[in-house]
Amino acid sequence: xxxxxxxxxxxxxxxxxxxxxxxxxxxxxxxxxxxxxxxxxxxxxxxxxxxxxxxxxxxxxxxxxxxxxxxxxxxxxxxxxxxxxxxxxxxxxxxxxxxxxxxxxxxxxxxxxxxxxxxxxxxxxxxxxxxxxxxxxxxxxxxxxxxxxxxxxxxxxxxxxxxxxxxxxxxxxxxxxxxxxxxxxxxxxxx
Length: 191
Prior knowledge:
The chain has 191 residues and is mostly helical.
């Protein structure tokens, strides 16, 4: 007599695979920033900050949605929320520091941009995370400020007024924000 093991149709990703997939989302920052630099130019006005932030947010949001395994409407919603959050956050944050590019200025700009992206994403996360989603905007504010601090400190030519920090900051931000897909995966496993 033979015994067979019944396996689920789709296995849940391991912690390592979840983090690795999310880590790839770092590429959305430099790719989105590059597209905005080419198509919009430097962040030196409310209009360029809004347009550049929207464009960067579309690219970043799409890559993050992929990393979260979102499909269909969920992918569109995540991409749209990220784009709207970054467009609004960059417009407010850059204007608040008068488009200056000193370390302190970019940390403030990053905090405002991160908080705005966090608020927009938290609206979508609330259904899945409940009250825990309320921590996401504050967490992103700190992490995005750190992303700008790292990029500025290593000597990137930030005077070119990019929409978002460079790859060095993006790698750190992606690793620090990998907590999101891990929490989401654990919540799904409990259901």
